[in-house]
Amino acid sequence: MGKNIAVVGTGYVGLVTGVALSEIGHNVTCIDIDEKKVARMQQGESPIYEPGLDEIMKRSIEAGRLHFTTKHEEGFQGKEIAYIAVGTPEKEDGTADLRFIEAVAKDIAQNVKQDITVVTKSTVPVGTNDYVLKLVKENLAEDVSVDVVSNPEFLREGSAVYDAFNGDRIVIGASSVHAGDLLEEVNKPFGLPIFRTDVRSAEMIKYAANAFLATKIGFINEVANLCDRLEANVEDVAAGMGMDGRIGAQFLRPGHGYGGSCFPKDTSALVKLADAVGYEFDLLQAVVDGNKRQKLIMVDKAKEVIGSLKGKKIALLGLAFKPNTDDMRESPAIDISRELLLSGAEVTGYDPIAMENAPHFMPEGVDYVPSAEEALQGADAAILVTDWDEFKNLDMSVYENLMAAPLLFDGRNTYSRDVVATSNVEYYSVGRKPVN
Ligand code: NAD
């Protein structure tokens, strides 16, 4: 039977969680403090770009299983489970900012009138769920019992809906057997493998998984930089490495650095978490530092090839941190354009989906145009930042015909070198020999 569930925070994680839980038959109320967002969602419109989300959202709203509100009191009414899915951004010192988590814990305590299981979906440092349990208990308005469950989220932006129904595992770390059983029952209809553990190990699984993936990307990026200097082809190297079952072929695609709302902040937070208990996580610190460097490799290459960038018109193709999302957080486009502007270049940017978000994250002084063609028109060079399908499908003749000089720096190894070789485009990519 469907459970009555509140989900607090309707970002990429909260909204997808709420929608997915309602799709499998639970009665869900999503709570957010952002009135504009809530008004849009009440109309069945998703405030974030996530393929497939609008469709399921509308279906669940029509079926009466999915509601949205800005009022915590209304949202928690009659709920036996409260998911926390608010942001845990990076503080200036690299640690995780738990302000939003603390606020929600207090909101839950003040508003619940029945026993409640608090489920933390947000990525939080080890020990945070114990702290949440304490906070809720200390601030309770009614005499009810409270449990906590760490249930970290592994979805990937851009395929979040698919991942909700097809993920590799659901991790449940509960403060009591009863709470763990309850969460297992809630998640059973997804039909995915469920891994039960203690609260702290569940919290650690999320950080360790993200840190490992970031390390894998960091590693292949370093190998690519070496290939670049030794005239080997990183694509072949990665393919040959990935055939080894112990290594695995995924996450071996080099590029100009990872971004997004998770890897950068979660790797920093884990380094800081280690610091706090007197342990130096040198390996992960090297990954963090290496990624900062990596974001500028295409600008460095452009300087090497062109010389001074002063007055040069440079087109940025793609601004989002990866394809199929409008998320701009920590996108390499930000560092790249800042460095280009500092070097005196004129920067024109285009993204198929992130145009609305981009100006809030990018440095002042970037021009935005509504198509790749307009960005390339008269450009002295182009940097391919995000490997959207739209760019993958661009014919080389577009670069040849529109640019002042067809000079392309591909930070995502989007094109096959053989295809580029049939054109006049001068082409530089990551860990592969230049073409033309
Ligand atoms: P987000 O910033 O997109 O959304 C957070 C939402 O919470 C916002 O809509 C905000 O208005 C709302 N909010 C803040 N305080 C609130 C309050 N007191 N009451 C109600 N709503 C409130 O965040 P996100 O990207 O969905 O990430 C959420 C968490 O999940 C983070 O800890 C993140 O690390 C983790 N996570 C994110 C992803 C991802 O791909 N985005 C993947 C796995 C885990």
Automatic annotation (TrEMBL):
Binding site for NAD(+): D32, K37, T88, T123, E157, K265, R329
Residue positions binding substrate: F154, L155, R156, E157, K206, F251, L252, R253, P254, G255, G259, K322
Gene3D superfamilies named among the record's database cross-references: Cytochrome c1, transmembrane anchor, C-terminal (1.20.5.100), NAD(P)-binding Rossmann-like Domain (3.40.50.720)
Enzyme class: oxidoreductase
Top-level taxon of the source organism: Bacteria
Pfam families: UDPG_MGDP_dh, UDPG_MGDP_dh_C, UDPG_MGDP_dh_N
Active-site residues from the entry: C262
Occurrences of domain UDP-glucose/GDP-mannose dehydrogenase C-terminal (ranges): 315-417
Pathway annotation: Nucleotide-sugar biosynthesis; UDP-alpha-D-glucuronate biosynthesis; UDP-alpha-D-glucuronate from UDP-alpha-D-glucose: step 1/1
Keywords attached to this entry: NAD, Oxidoreductase
Catalytic activity: UDP-alpha-D-glucose + 2 NAD(+) + H2O = UDP-alpha-D-glucuronate + 2 NADH + 3 H(+)
MF terms (GO), sorted A to Z: NAD binding; UDP-glucose 6-dehydrogenase activity
SMART domains: UDPG_MGDP_dh_C
Family of this protein: Belongs to the UDP-glucose/GDP-mannose dehydrogenase family.
Matching PANTHER family: UDP-GLUCOSE 6-DEHYDROGENASE TUAD, UDP-GLUCOSE 6-DEHYDROGENASE YWQF
Protein name as annotated: UDP-glucose 6-dehydrogenase
Source species: Alkalicoccus saliphilus
